[in-house]
Q: What sequence folds into this?
């Protein structure tokens, strides 16, 4: 799935769309996506100008966006049906290494529990083979008018 198709499912746009491509997607199971981290992203003007580091909260947001894509595909819904998935919670989030411009984040999300209006998943972000972040994510479906 390329970015133009991703935009059909996620309401986010630059600079907050944090999934560049989906490499693998198995509805009801898992998703593998990537986020390319580049120096020209606006957060690096202040985080941190001398030694730029991709904010941890944005790594979790990237995992949440991948989780939302997985939820949409698992439920065979999309925003044009009047639905959106929101990040409703995180648990046991841990950061293992800094992410810097030039890194490519590999976002891996696996479903733990899929219910009618919410999904619990395990998210892991890697740079190469190194684990950067792990988190349990809860996303909730909401109907929008």
A:
């Amino acid at each position: 799935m390329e970015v133009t198709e991703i935009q059909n499912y996620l309401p986010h746009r630059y600079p907050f769309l944090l999934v560049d491509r989906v490499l693998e997607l198995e509805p009801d199971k898992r998703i593998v996506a990537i986020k390319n981290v580049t120096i020209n992203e606006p957060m690096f003007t202040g985080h941190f100008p001398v030694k730029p580091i991709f904010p941890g909260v944005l790594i979790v947001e990237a995992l949440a966006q991948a989780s939302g894509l997985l939820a949409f595909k698992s439920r065979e819904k999309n925003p044009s049906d009047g639905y959106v998935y929101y990040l409703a919670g995180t648990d046991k989030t841990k950061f293992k290494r800094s992410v810097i411009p030039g890194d490519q984040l590999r976002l891996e999300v696996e479903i733990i529990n899929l219910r009618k209006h919410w999904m619990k998943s395990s998210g892991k972000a890697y740079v190469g083979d190194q684990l950067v972040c792990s988190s349990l994510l809860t996303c909730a479906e909401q109907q929008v008018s």
Notes: The CA atoms of residues 86 and 99 lie 24 Å apart. The two ends are 27 Å apart (CA to CA).
